[in-house]
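DEPOSITED CHAIN:
***
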Amino acid sequence: MRETDAVLFDLDDTLIDYQFSRRQGLRAVQELLPALARVALEELELVHDEQLQVTYLLTLDGSLSYGDARLERMRGICRRYYLQPGETAIAKAAAAYAREQESNARLIPGVPELLGTLRRAVKIGVITNGSAAAQRFKMERCDIRPGDFDVVAISEEVGAAKPDPAIFQLALVGLGVTADRVTMVGDSWEKDVLGALGSGMAAVWFNRYARTCPTPELAAEIRGYEPVGDVLEALGIQAGKG
């Protein structure tokens, strides 16, 4: 079995329960924009994610500020449903989303115990796409301290985003470990699993919602972090190491 000397984690929906906090934010939007109350929350979540991907690229190249991106995402959702609520209503909805999403940040069950166990055994790090301010704020709200990790690579700060091999290579430099001794854990098959494999790392797919695995032979799969012994086995770490 391949041995692991370092583990890298995605942040959103891998360590932090982003789905939960996003849904709280979207519920607040539905209250302020009643026409959206008829839209299933799961559908609204997908539309929000589409808008998030578009505005993320614009914030990454500096053409859109984080605050303006938040407004543009809300405008995009309204356009999708042919709504014209006006800029004041847009601003109120965007602010309500941010308030509720931020105040409902929480870790996925089992994360504190897993990270504590891993710190005693291997090096650990985070690779995440997004705004540096937003990602670091989430970590702070969830009591994940950057100093507890050997490396934290945020796309805005390093100038590359998963699945670009550049962000994985930068993380490897920070870890001081060769790719063949590193395992990446993440919920995105394309960005986390394929990105890690393309950089010479092993990968574990965090499939919390029991989606169909595109290519099971490429990566191990876990659906939660409890019990921690099972997770260590999937990561290729012997219990008691360290």
The chain has two domains: 6-17+106-235, 18-103. The domain at 6-17+106-235 is CATH 3.40.50.1000 (Rossmann fold). The two ends are 18 Å apart (CA to CA).
